[in-house]
Structure to design on (664 residues):
């Protein structure tokens, strides 16, 4: 049984522009200890998926309109609020992009981490504080004793994210949801935080749902990848397969549009222009009929614009929602 | 190549609540006509301050700035004006840099009006031409910035920057706020405009893979100083400065089977630009730092006949390094 089993989840937003299907019938599973990346551009629904699993979708305007989220044998969508609170921050930890908005500026780092521990575990104040020092060591914060008494605004972005991670893993969760955990950080700090997350996963045997727009981060961190576009999953694959042979034209486009250091150069010493994906992501208020990527897809057929294209299996653990996969595989150089 | 733009020993310190920020601390750079100079560095390294100095939005405390053969270091507002027309800027967040209540056509026309170029009819024709050049649809003319997508807004920013036929455009993180699929469109557009009009760019970004794609030469900045300068290929393949090596090692490669190398950098916070470390400013994070690095500041020295510059005590004038080669460097 997978640790997390998301089945046909839909989360829609009800606004003046109408009903926006931010997440529109997606399914995926995460095994214990596995890292799965949810990848896509802004507005594709990846963060709303994370918020739905945690049941933190702001309502109104958002509402989970369908599906099931099975975690450790229970459907999270059916849990009473108090039981859900016992899951959140305890069995499922979370790390967000902007640590400063998630940390309370008027409490010390030590107080905030200790509070998380005491909320979920029946331990004394002293025991909680002892655990805080261990956690800060675990996330490789130098001089934890000093930091315990410090306030979040006095820390650098990288240190704040370490504190957030310490809070997220305080109760040794089975699943860590990390929503763009390194996007606000400098590249060298990003590399340090990703290395730390890898190390912690191994030590604690945690599974991770990593939400990111950065395919480089995906390649180095995840075992399996889901590509989202306009509220739907368009491709799912093991990380090696995805980068070796992307099946969906959107995934292909994303990978081909990245600048590649050390690419071949022309006579003037310049690399070839990047391949572009034409057009822009559609608005959720005006989604095209059929495949949502069809208007930007160089391979689209009339059929793609007329009916929804379901996900189809191409091998044991490869799925893509595209009718042209076999043609493109055949034509690929 | 005669330099279109030349900066010598430029220093700019800002007064902040807790002391002096050493934003730019003795920077010298040349940009040739039609050349793209990439400038990379992390937050707080001074790259945006450098952009403001290059366009003389800010004045340096000391040093000189020459543009198109003229010393513009100390020129006042009025005297600067004709030079400003030839150097334009593109910003990271197009929405913040475009007047929200002004139509797209008017935003693009604005520099022409301010600099008194052409009749109304000629300006209108020029705006239409500019919009076509940057790939904006005619229907965008009467739209407001918030009605466009992020990529289209950046095209508006580019059209406005092109309006006066500049020789130099300073691009400050122009694609950092854009989605991956849009970023390629904008990078290709900038590249084709350079090729067509021979414009020079000072292209500033924190993203080394983007800079490596678009620049001819790359300068690496750390805490107000240039630590290495080389052509794009050499810099990527054989970085000499330990900070450049760490930067390159930290770029996650979007390809299967590339597991992370251990970052060749000490796991400590970057120092504050309020109090840059003595000696080499990178020594607190440098895994190879020696005693001399903590006391003596390494000059940015030329490497024999190669056109590259490195500021590191552990690299000699022939470019021989006593640093173990970074694991990811490609030969």
């Amino acid at each position: 049984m997978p640790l997390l089993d998301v089945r046909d989840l839909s989360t829609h937003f009800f606004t003046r522009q109408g009903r926006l299907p931010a997440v529109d019938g997606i399914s995926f599973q995460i095994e214990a200890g596995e890292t799965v990346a949810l990848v896509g551009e802004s507005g594709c629904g990846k963060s709303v998926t994370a918020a739905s699993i945690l049941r933190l979708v702001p309502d109104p305007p958002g509402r989970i309109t369908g599906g099931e989220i099975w975690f450790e044998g229970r459907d999270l969508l059916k849990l009473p609020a108090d039981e859900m609170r016992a899951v959140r921050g305890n069995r499922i930890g979370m790390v967000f992009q902007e640590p400063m908005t998630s940390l309370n500026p008027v409490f010390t780092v030590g107080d905030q981490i200790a509070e998380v521990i005491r909320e979920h575990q029946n331990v004394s104040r002293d025991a909680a504080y002892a655990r805080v020092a261990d956690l800060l060591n675990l996330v490789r914060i130098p001089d934890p004793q000093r930091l315990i008494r410090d306030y979040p605004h006095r820390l650098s972005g990288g240190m704040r994210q370490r504190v957030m991670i310490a809070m997220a893993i305080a109760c040794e969760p089975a699943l860590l949801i990390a929503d763009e955990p390194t996007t606000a950080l400098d590249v060298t700090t990003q590399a340090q935080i990703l290395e730390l997350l890898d190390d912690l996963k191994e030590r604690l045997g945690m599974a991770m749902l990593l939400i990111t727009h950065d395919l480089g981060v995906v390649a180095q961190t995840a075992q399996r990848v889901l590509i989202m576009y306009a509220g739907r999953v368009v491709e799912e694959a093991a990380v090696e397969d995805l980068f070796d042979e992307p099946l969906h034209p959107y995934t292909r486009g994303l990978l081909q549009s990245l600048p590649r250091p050390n690419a071949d150069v022309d006579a003037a010493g310049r690399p070839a222009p990047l391949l572009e994906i034409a057009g822009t992501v559609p608005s959720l208020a005006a989604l095209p009929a059929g495949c949502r990527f069809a208007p930007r897809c160089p391979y689209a057929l009339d059929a793609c614009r007329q009916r929804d294209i379901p996900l189809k299996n191409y091998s044991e653990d490869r799925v893509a929602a595209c009718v042209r996969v076999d043609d493109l595989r055949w034509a690929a150089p | 190549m005669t330099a279109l733009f030349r900066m010598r020993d430029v220093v700019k310190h800002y007064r902040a609540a807790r002391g002096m920020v050493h934003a730019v601390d003795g920077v010298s750079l040349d940009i040739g006509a039609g050349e793209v100079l990439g400038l990379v560095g992390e937050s707080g390294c001074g790259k945006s301050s450098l952009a403001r100095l290059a366009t003389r939005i800010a004045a340096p405390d000391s040093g000189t700035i020459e543009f198109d053969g003229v010393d513009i270091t100390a020129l006042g507002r009025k005297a600067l004006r004709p030079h400003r027309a030839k150097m334009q800027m593109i910003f990271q967040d197009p929405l913040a840099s475009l007047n929200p209540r002004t139509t797209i056509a008017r935003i693009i026309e604005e520099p022409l009006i301010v600099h008194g170029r052409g009749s109304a009819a000629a300006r209108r024709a020029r705006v239409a031409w500019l919009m076509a050049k940057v790939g904006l649809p005619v229907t965008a003319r009467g739209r407001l910035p918030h009605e466009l997508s992020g990529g289209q807004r950046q095209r508006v920013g580019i059209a406005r920057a092109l309006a006066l036929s500049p020789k130099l455009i300073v691009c400050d993180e122009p694609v950092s706020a854009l989605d991956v699929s849009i970023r390629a469109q904008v990078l290709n557009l900038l590249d084709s405009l350079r090729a067509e009009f021979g414009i020079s760019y000072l292209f500033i970004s924190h993203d080394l893979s983007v800079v490596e794609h678009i620049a001819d030469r790359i300068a690496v900045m750390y805490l107000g100083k240039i630590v290495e300068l080389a052509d794009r290929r050499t810099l990527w393949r054989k970085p000499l400065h330990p900070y450049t090596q760490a930067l390159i090692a930290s770029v996650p490669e979007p390809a299967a089977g590339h597991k992370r190398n251990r970052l060749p950098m000490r796991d400590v916070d970057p120092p504050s630009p309020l109090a840059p470390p003595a000696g080499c400013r990178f020594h607190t994070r440098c895994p190879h730092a020696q005693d001399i690095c903590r006391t003596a500041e390494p000059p940015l020295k030329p490497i024999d006949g190669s056109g590259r510059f490195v500021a590191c005590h552990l690299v000699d004038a022939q470019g021989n390094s006593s640093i173990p080669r970074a694991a990811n460097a490609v030969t």
Observations:
- The longest strand of chain A covers residues 18-30.
- Chain A touches chain B through 53 residues (CB under 8 Å).
